Structure formats: structure tokens, C-alpha cells
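Quick one: C-alpha cells for this chain, please?
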Amino acid sequence: MSQGLATMLREGTQKSHTMAESTSFIKGFLKGVVDKASYRKLAGNFYFIYAALEAEITRHQDHPVLSKLFYRELWRERSLEKDLAYYCGNDWRSQVQPSPACKEYLQRIKEVSDTDPELLVAHAYTRYMGDLSGGQILKNIAKKAMKLEGSNGTAFYDFDGIKNHGAFKKGYREALDTLPVDKQTADRIVDEANHAFHLNMQMFDELKGNWLVALWRLTWNSLMSRLQPSVSTPATQSSTAS
């Protein structure tokens, strides 16, 4: 191919990436408007997605294409288990269920794994490269918005096995460029990556209502904090006069 797969994926999904960032939930998240209820639902969906994706990649770890991208240090299933235990308690498994959009996402992962396993490259790229690229920014936003301390509730963003995110991403892109795929297969991987973005956006859209609730709470709290001095002044004056 005249162009590497890494470049094809970056350029071929640019529009989808922008659309995903423009969803109400993500726009709100980036502005610091996020609460534990909506984030817990997102973490729950991600748990099912990553558990399925990692199971299918492991299933095909000897595949001529997927074997080149078999990096256990990227796995997120265990970190999401920690986060869900924090948000829901030790019995989180009885509380967390995949949403309708998540179920559609899971069905697609299983479908491509059974019929075209090389297309799992698209799902791995869409999720893991996004996590590594913007993860630390999102982690800091989540900690501030939900008033989290230490690593409580944000284990998802911690890649303990990767010391240098930039160097790892460079190596990952180089691995993508050396995958034994032809131009037709590369084009199908890019198409699948765009579909993966669409599936993620559907999950984000399900959280729109939670985003609006969080925004209302933030606005209300801001308003009350501004009114607080004028509300307390009469009481203070009365106490002083007596």
C-alpha cells in the first residue's frame, strides 16, 4: 500500500472522531459537567465492551494479523472492575447491566470476531488509542467534577504497564503499518473503525439525559453559592443586633 494503515485510520476517521467529541455527553464531560450516576453507567458499558473485545482478541492471539497487536498492557477489563467496585460496591456485578446501545456494540464485536477477525483491529484502535491519547485529560476532569481522591474511581485511565504513552503509541502505529493486509482489507478496517465510532456515539447519546441533570445541578449549585452571602446577611445582622 502507498499509505500506511495508521495514517489511513487517522485520516479516515477524523470526521467520526469530531462527531463523537460533539455529542452532548462528551461536550459536557469536557466542560466538567459529569456526575457519578452517568459516569457509573458509562463505566458499566465500557466494562462489557472491553471484556468482550479483550476476550475475542485473546481468542485470535495467533491470528496472522491480530497477533501483531496483542498487547495485554492495554487491557482495561480489570481496571474497570476496580472502578465499578468503587462506585457500586463489591456486589457491582448484580447491579451493572449493558444498555441497549452497548448490547448492539457487543453484538458487532462478536460478529466480526466470528466472520472477519482482522476487523477487530478497528475496534482496538478506536478504543485504546483514544484512551492513551486523551485519558489523562479526562481523568483530571473526572476527578475534579466528581471530587474524587487519589485513584478512586479512575483506574480506567491508569496504564501501569506503559511508562511512556507517546513511545507506546508510536510503536503501536508502526505495528499497524506492518500488518499483513492488502489495500482492500485496510479499507474495510477503516470503515469498521468509523462504525465503531458510531457505536460509541450511540452509547454517549443514551447518557444525554444524565448530562442534562448534571448540568442543571451544576447551574443550581453555582446559583446558590452566589446567593448565599445575600441570604445569610440578614441573619448575621439580626444576631449582631441582639
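Residues 211-225, 230-242 have pLDDT under 50 and may be disordered.
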